[in-house]
Write a structure and sequence with these properties.
Length: 89
């Protein structure tokens, strides 16, 4: 009986550690993607005249891709917070 409780506690500790790792990675991805999407929007619109057409096209495509990464990292953050029993914001 005690072994079963210890194994269950060990599994909970492993999941908690996994959720903490996922939360850190998701927060980092959110911060990086926020900086990248800001840069790509600035390149695409207000400062477009200072960049070549190829860079502008890349920035427009990057805006779409980075927005998807931002959304996925937010969902991962919500999953990790739920797994840790934290309030999801």
């Amino acid at each position: 009986m005690n072994t079963l409780m210890l194994n269950n506690l060990n599994n909970q500790t492993q999941f908690s550690s996994l959720y903490e790792t996922v939360l850190f990675a998701a927060n980092t991805a959110l911060a990086v993607s926020l900086v990248c999407i800001t840069a790509s929007i600035l390149i695409s619109y207000p400062f477009a005249e200072y960049f070549s057409m190829a860079v502008q096209v890349s920035a427009h495509i990057g805006t779409i891709v980075i927005a998807a990464i931002l959304k996925v990292s937010y969902v991962l953050r919500c999953v990790a917070q739920h797994g840790l029993g934290q309030e999801i914001r």
